[in-house]
Sequence to fold (448 residues):
Amino acid sequence: MKHYFLLFTLAMVINSFAQTDQKIYDIVDAISEENLRSDVKKLADFGTRHTLSDTVSETRGIGAARRWIKYQFDIISKDCNNCLNVFFQSNFVEKGANQRIVKDVNVVNVVAIQKGTKYPNRYIIMSGDIDSRVTDPNDFTSDAPGANDNATGMAGAMEAARVLSKYKFENSIIYVGLSGEEQGLFGGQGLAKYAKEQNWDIIGVLNNDMIGNISGVDGIIDNRTFRIFSEPITTAETDPKKLANQNRTRRYYGGEIDGISRQLARYVYKTTNTYMPEMNPMLVYRLDRFGRGGHHRPFNDMGFAGLRIMEAHENYTQQHQDIRTENGIDYGDTFEHVNIPYCKKLTAVNAITMASLASAPPSPKEVGIGGIVEASVKLKWSKIEGAKGYKIYWRDTTSPTWDHSRFVEDITEFTLDGIVVDNSYFGVASVGENGHESVVVFPNKILR
Ligand SMILES: [Zn+2]
Fold:
């Protein structure tokens, strides 16, 4: 009895030093290549999943595809005692909404919600896209297998659901297939609006768009690197007075590269480095690729944290292309170009990020900072019920990542002695009893 207790205590101590959770390694291992392979193949085999394509056929078009996806989520739910709430979320878009909506259409998303045990209204969301396209964005009949773009993201969301639904988490997780991406991000807009109406407290959106290509058009083959795109600060604030205030604060105190989406991106980066050190996460300090769009943006537009997870090396001969051979080059986004082991790794990146966030307490709402003309930094934050402590992070102003940290017990203010406020940026995260951490909060208050 005594020995047991000692061993148990020792294990806890070791665990809290290492700050890793065996469950997260198990999740990495549980992601199945076989499932991803057959799901990507199945999605590509619907011929086209163009948003404006046929909805009646059971074998071809976006209607068949979304019914099949919903059916898969239903099966996953059955396997976990109906732990998922699965439904279609439909958004009517009128002909002429933009040049790519050439007829009235219902843009239908498939949503699967795994409710949290402690914070049911806090959601971490993983999205992939249902729809596909060829060269002409309005061609809704030609074969558009969209195997990489974006059957990989969709299959990833389904596989993450299969694995994570075997566990219970304190926060809710949503797995979603969005439609209308290629026609103008309509599915994301619809779901972001729905989330606002439902008062969802969104921890963040992990938008997966193209997570299966390792062979770049630049000749580089790389199955370790992936990109995390995030906007620097939110642009959702439109009140001119508040905007002026924000700009002024950022000018004097910093924060212009520390918005909520950027903190979420750093969280993905850190979690990957901790549990999948063989990977090379690459933080890209921009909303998305140069001049291009993705389904995290409509969530950002509504003030939610969201980012894009994506392969590092794209192949444009396989993106948005009619299937054809020209000058010896095979064009088209077909199944055989997808690298399933890589898709598995990026699916695992999502799954471990969601499992960690879904296990963590909420971030402190308010974080204050002070320390002007002193050789120390004062931090003060609002208490989080259920947190066992907090982690104070800091980094050089030119560093992309939170490189230094200090854990403190359940207190709400702390002074970092010997550190000058001018030369670093600071933030605070809350830490749960289980060791899982919230996203870091950049100070939003100045202490005088
Ligand atoms: Zn695309």
Observations:
- The first strand starts at residue 84 and ends at 93.
- The radius of gyration is 22 Å.
